[in-house]
Amino acid sequence: MLGGNDCIFGVCFLCQVKLQKHNTDVQGLRYKNGLHCASRILQTEGVKGLYRGATSSFLGMAFESSLMFGIYSQAKLFLRGTLPDDGPRPEIIVPSAMFGGAIISFVLCPTELVKCRMQIQGTDSLVPNFRRYKSPLDCAVQTVKNEGVTGIFRGGSATLLRECAGNAVFFTVYEYLRYHIHSRLEDSKLKDGYLVDMGIGVFTGGLGGIACWSAVLPFDVAKTIIQTSSDKATERNPFKVLSSIHKRAGLKGCYAGLGPTIVRAFPANAAAIVAWEFSMKMLGIKRD
């Protein structure tokens, strides 16, 4: 769904994970920002290093987007029932978004675990060579072999919290912005047209994405720490992990990777919304 922007998003994903992992560790590397991280990767691993773990990430994103929008739309229709279509209703938007987020967290958790573990094992990491994975498939197989089936779902609680809260914020911001912008254009000549709809989709989807990640990035940091830990007995409670990070790195540590995340959030979510709305128009599905 993100199309030709995959290369940019892949780099942002990698820098986000590296910053979250290394900038919250007691020992190890420290990156000044996303640009410093990307520069360091280019110097030590070349261009190929910027796309480490991208395969599992892109596959997960593509399936996640289509599944999320489908579940959200159907859940919203079910909850609305015979209620009048008189604008956004938080009592419908929030549970629909949270339900969709809960479902897709089970899809995202394994793909993101593989992505994160692949991305932290570059030449500038502290992961010893004998413990590195040859491919995403090898990572998944070795994880199940060493940690059991439950190992591939490590970080599930943090993923669940991030997806439920994040999607609730995203769709609330998106729906309210979209409704009020269209209301302002009701009597305008700009009311209809693909370019106008696309512009509104870009604006509302992009701001929704920024609001979403600004709200739930700490859960994503906790998830990365949990999923990339080499200790099987590592703490898996995201709140306890965040408390530990806050003690040693402060609020800044809880928001490690914010720069690359925000850079990716606007165009990625804008593209997703535009594609979703365009698909519904092509299929003749009426938007409420």
Q: Which fold name corresponds to the CATH topology? A: Mitochondrial carrier fold
Portion of residues in beta strands equals: under 5%
Tell me, rounded to a whole number, the average pLDDT.
81
- Determine the number of helices (DSSP H or I, runs of at least 4 residues): 9
Distance between the termini: 23 Å
CATH class: Mainly Alpha
Helix content: over 70%
- Net shape: globular
CATH architecture: Alpha/alpha barrel
Q: Largest sheet at a glance?
A: none
Radius of gyration from the alpha-carbon trace, in angstroms: 20 Å
Name the quaternary structure: single chain
Number of domains: 1
Q: Stretches where pLDDT falls below 50 for ≥5 residues?
A: 1-7
Order of helices and strands: HHHHHHHHH
- CATH homologous superfamily descriptor: Mitochondrial carrier domain
- Helix-strand category: mainly alpha
In total, how many beta strands? 0
Please specify the SSE layout and strand pairing.
Blueprint: H1 6-22, H2 34-45, H3 54-80, H4 90-119, H5 136-147, H6 156-184, H7 194-228, H8 238-254, H9 258-283
Helix pairs in contact: 1-2, 1-9, 3-4, 4-5, 4-6, 6-7, 7-8, 7-9
Structure, explained:
The protein has 288 residues and is an all-alpha fold. 71% of the residues lie in helices and 0% in strands. The chain has one domain: Mitochondrial carrier domain (Mitochondrial carrier fold, Alpha/alpha barrel). The longest helix is centred in the last third of the chain and has 35 residues. It is globular, with a radius of gyration of 20 Å. The two termini are 23 Å apart.
